[in-house]
């Protein structure tokens, strides 16, 4: 009788051990799954504007000293094509353009050129062109959001802009332009109404040098 009790006790302990091991294994598998899932998520990369990036930032994305010098000397790049022509033929442009770009004017860029944007193929390049003319970046979000999720639309926005009409654009539309500080947004608004682009050059030229003024001028237009 005593021997039977001892046998039952050992059996119970063995069962408890098996259950414990099973739970431990399950927890380990669960932890591994979470770990794998976390590692598979890649944080969105910041796309530098080739007209605004500092020498330090250009170094951090792997540009050589020689290319950094060329970038600094040739700025501002009026279009992405100008910057693209500067990139050596043996460089992986698709990888490079995940880190640096000159935003495309959505209303004037050739459909084929949109494919310089990483991840944009024939179909999406066509959709970018299909909804012209764009009057605001909000329109771009709405139309392209029919095809991709919000995160992808936001990524695209690092590569494009919609030029604004200086006298009628909302403050939010002006803020959406690439590389504008709050102070510059204020100055754009301060000198309204603009009769012509000469007035823009005169007034905004008080705050920036000639190269930066040329860059800003491509972001705006005036309805006569």
What level of helicity do the residues show? 40-55%
What fold name stands as the CATH topology of the domain at 44-102?
Answer: DNA polymerase, domain 1
Could you give the order of the helices and strands? Answer: HEHHHHEEHHHEEHHHHE
The CATH level-2 architecture of the domain at 44-102 is identified as: Orthogonal Bundle
> Could you tell me the radius of gyration in angstroms?
28 Å
Strand content: 5-15%
Uncertain residue segments:
1-43
Tally the beta strands: 6
Major sheet details:
2 strands, parallel
According to CATH, what is the class of the domain at 44-102?
Answer: Mainly Alpha
**Within the largest sheet, what's the order of strands?**
1-2
Q: How does the overall form come out from the CA principal axes?
A: globular
Count of separate DSSP helical elements: 12
Beginning-to-end CA distance, first to last residue: 108 Å
Explain the layout of strands and helices.
Elements: H1 2-40, E1 48-49, H2 55-60, H3 65-74, H4 80-86, H5 93-96, E2 100-101, E3 104-105, H6 122-130, H7 137-144, H8 150-157, E4 160-161, E5 164-165, H9 171-175, H10 182-190, H11 197-204, H12 210-217, E6 220-221
Parallel strand pairs: 1-2, 3-4, 5-6
